[in-house]
Design the sequence.
């Protein structure tokens, strides 16, 4: 834990800060974005292209990898980095989010009014011991406990790992949220004990023993008093980092309120990760409250649907639109990555009209570059003490 | 035409030869393989990765591109190379193969016993004027004539282009094949006249006027006398290159017989292209008869189905097989391309089990490298006058 996170500079007019996460696979300059490589790959993007797009760190999902190929296979291969040929920092989540979103339905499904049928529910039971779910691959009943999640993440061997939590959705009441939060706290304690008990002696061929860093997760839903309790409880344990999880409400103002509840109750200098947030405006609000890292599937998922991120268009640029059929100008004349100059809007439009994989790859690389460049600008503005000016200017132009 | 093709070396003990095709976008060392980039992209592979895999030249399909995005869009963008960011030699076919295979069913569909229902037939009519077909995108009736095919290929702007032919399938009789071949000859003449009439003055924004090279196509099915007539007829025109098209029979011996019929009747020193052949053994038989270039979808298509090419396994290595689940050895320890060393068999198996796009990209790059390396070895063996030894050794180990 010592020296894992160094704060370099705290902005004078906000809590925004720059820092450095030191991992076994290199450093991460914060604030930073963590890209989603769910099944041990950022979909359709080679590691060389992730590097070209200035990527610092990616995230894989324990839930998916424990089912396919299985954590022992990855341990035997030498760990996630060796397995994927991404020799830079990596994070794994605990498996909780996917299990619970498969049970409750994800936040986005709730918002869109979709209902998960009983038949499709794969979460079978949650109790003190852990969560029992049905494998989406073969229907096997699987029990995931806090200890198992830690040991699976040991085998995967990522640099930053997470405790198992119950990720409560938006539609549950305060009573459920509180009860769930309290169990999450007991699970956090069990996770940490499991982690510390074998941190230096865990037998895995991936060589990560003693080199991983564990994050605790702050739950509490949209409730101010619960978030305060969660911040204090999770902060009281010897985690290397803290993460903000669970429901952040169903509108932006509620999300920013939750950010504030957490920010005002995190008193120490551990790195703070925000789970599942990728909106540019939301990132700026998070950074201004002293949060250091963010992860989300959005930048690469929308790329696969033909949407390129933009500093001025909140919904991005949709290349499925026939507006781009004859627009032979480069993707982004101002971007300092070759693909932005080498490919035209008309070509990307053509690739999406033709259902060609390459369109997904090119836009994914662009969106990754875009987010990394956005964070670079954030860091620069903090270093120069004008983050608030940068934030205000950006949000004024972002419609 | 002058200086378009230079023969460097003819093997002493076969007709195998090395040469150089000089195009407006660089040279192609022959014998060479031409990879399939049907809709203006080699599926899932960035041009930078094509280069890394030593690719010399790729092929796009007129039939697909005339429908989407349309040849004028590509002309206005500056031509296929500019459009695709592949700034090296390119070939386009005439559109004939796709139209006729949609009408008759392709050779592989015949072999597999599949029948095209009347409903799905998109070929509506073939007569002296040309072929009328139904667009698979919007049902529009479209007439493709030899002259139109040339003009569309002008707009696309590839370096090597083809005359429109009727690509007769395996299941038609000699009478039909002969009648069809004679029409193909009249179409070849019309194509050439159209080409020569506007070769230097064709108005297109792609700058290819006067810089394209036209290939005539030799038909005649599996019939020795018809192939002789076709060779003589097509050779009598001022084409820059000659191509062997149409049915090559339904077994390898019949294919090699057709190779022989053509080889013995091509008397001059123009480059010879073989359409749609990609089997390693078939390529060796073609090279030994003095053929210079080959194209086929196979190397990249099988890659997208999880199959890696191999020098010793005729059916390749199938990564869908659970044999590779725990095999952490590199893809190919002997290959001098990074991806063959950086990715393990277990990782590729995982990507295909997980339906991840990256598996398709990595194996496509590998198979492209493999074929390019195979041709490099062929060229080397010809230069060293031991092509026949190379061929015999290779075929002995290829099972």
Sequence:
């Amino acid at each position: 834990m010592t020296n894992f996170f160094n704060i370099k500079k705290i902005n004078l007019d906000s809590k925004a800060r720059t820092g450095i996460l030191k991992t076994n696979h290199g450093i991460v300059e914060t604030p930073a974005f963590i890209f989603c490589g769910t099944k041990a790959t950022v979909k359709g993007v080679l590691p060389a292209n992730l590097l070209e797009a200035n990527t610092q760190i990616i995230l894989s999902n324990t839930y998916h990898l424990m089912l396919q190929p299985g954590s022992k296979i990855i341990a035997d291969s030498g760990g996630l980095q060796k397995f994927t040929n991404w020799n830079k920092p990596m994070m794994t989540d605990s498996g909780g989010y996917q299990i619970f979103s498969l049970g409750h339905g994800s936040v986005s499904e709730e918002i869109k009014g979709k209902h998960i049928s009983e038949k499709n529910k794969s979460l079978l039971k949650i109790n003190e011991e852990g969560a029992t779910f049905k494998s989406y691959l073969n229907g096997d009943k699987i029990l995931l406990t806090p200890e198992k999640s830690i040991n699976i993440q040991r085998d995967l061997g990522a640099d930053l790992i997470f405790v198992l939590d119950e990720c409560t959705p938006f539609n549950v009441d305060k009573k459920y949220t509180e009860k769930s939060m309290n169990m999450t706290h007991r699970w956090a304690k069990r996770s940490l004990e499991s982690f510390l008990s074998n941190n230096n002696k865990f037998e895995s061929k991936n060589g990560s023993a003693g080199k991983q860093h564990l994050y605790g997760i702050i739950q509490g839903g949209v409730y101010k008093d619960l978030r305060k309790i969660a911040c204090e409880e999770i902060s009281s344990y010897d985690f290397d980092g803290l993460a903000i999880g669970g429901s952040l409400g169903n509108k932006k103002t509620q999300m920013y309120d939750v950010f504030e509840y957490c920010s005002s109750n995190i008193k120490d200098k551990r790195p703070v990760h925000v789970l599942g947030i990728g909106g540019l405006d939301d990132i700026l609000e998070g950074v201004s409250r002293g949060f250091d890292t963010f992860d989300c599937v959005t930048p690469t998922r929308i790329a696969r649907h033909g949407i390129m991120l933009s500093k001025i268009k909140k919904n991005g640029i949709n290349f499925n639109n026939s507006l781009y059929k004859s627009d032979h100008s480069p993707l982004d004349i101002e971007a300092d990555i070759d693909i932005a100059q080498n490919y035209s809007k008309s070509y990307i439009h053509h690739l999406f009209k033709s259902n060609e994989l390459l369109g997904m790859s090119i836009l994914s690389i662009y969106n990754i570059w875009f987010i990394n460049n956005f964070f670079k600008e954030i860091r620069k503005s903090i270093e120069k003490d004008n983050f608030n000016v940068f934030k205000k200017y950006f949000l004024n132009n972002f419609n």
